[in-house]
Amino acid sequence: MSTRFDICLIAGGKYHDIDFARLELLKLLAEHETARVTILNDYSDADTIRSTDMLITYTCDIVPDEKGLAALRDFLGKGRRWFALHGTNSILNFLADGKVDCPDCAPDFMEMLGSQFQAHPPIGRFKVKVADKDHALTRGLRDFFVEDEQYLCTFHPGNHPLLTTRFAGQTPEFTHSDWPDAEHLVMYTRPSHGGEVLYLTLGHCRGRFDLRPLADFYPFVERGAWAHPVYYELLRRGIRWGMGG
């Protein structure tokens, strides 16, 4: 008899179609008959986080308090794996001049994840390169183009690059607006507090009502990397990785 595998999916936050992302992730998790999923909106249920076998997060501007942070440390301290997606590493502060600031006000959380979001250019098409062709998570993949938010982050030492992208230019909507030519991580693994984190920055999605209270109605439906089959392949590989594969 197969052994039950408990997964905690935290899907919540701002400015994204969280319902869409949650549903798509649940469909992928349903491909594993041993998986049983508990869904949370944030990090407040410390007992569930502490006891789960795997953690998946798709959030935006959601940061754990000290109780939640302690639960994450305990979870990782058991040697378990955390698959973090898209805006998990974001803190967004909208200023009076309309720009977005990403303050360094949760350093322990960002160190745990290995990065903090700082900016992205307007949604567009960009190239993603396979940085480690021998890793199980990327083996057999080729470089690809995707239309999504090209995440520009500050990174902590110790991350192992799997996918990268290159950017040089301006991000005028953000306080961190000047970016010299450099490579940025798109997917990486990181040993963290006795466990391991897999971070994948792709995966923006937004519906027509997801910018509230900034705007009552958004004229577009955005699906970003979710419109690309390679993204679902990366998600499937990440889920298998988190389950010990």
What's the layout of helices and strands?
Elements: E1 5-13, H1 18-29, E2 35-40, H2 46-51, E3 54-60, H3 66-77, E4 81-85, E5 93-94, E6 100-101, H4 107-113, E7 115-119, E8 124-130, E9 144-148, E10 152-155, E11 160-170, E12 178-192, E13 195-200, H5 229-242
Q: Describe the sheet with the most strands.
A: 9 strands, mixed
CATH topology: Rossmann fold
Number of domains: 1
Query: What is the helix content?
Result: 10-25%
Please tell me the CATH architecture by its name. 3-Layer(aba) Sandwich
What does this structure look like?
This protein has five helices and 13 strands. It is α/β, with parallel strands linked by helices. It has one domain (5-242): 3-Layer(aba) Sandwich (Rossmann fold). It has helices at 18-29, 46-51, 66-77, 107-113, 229-242, and strands at 5-13, 35-40, 54-60, 81-85, 93-94, 100-101, 115-119, 124-130, 144-148, 152-155, 160-170, 178-192, 195-200. A hairpin with a 5-residue loop joins β5 (93-94) and β6 (100-101). The strands form three sheets. It has a nine-stranded mixed β-sheet. It has a two-stranded antiparallel sheet with strand order 5-6. It starts with a strand and ends with a helix. It is 21% helix and 34% strand. The mean pLDDT is 97.
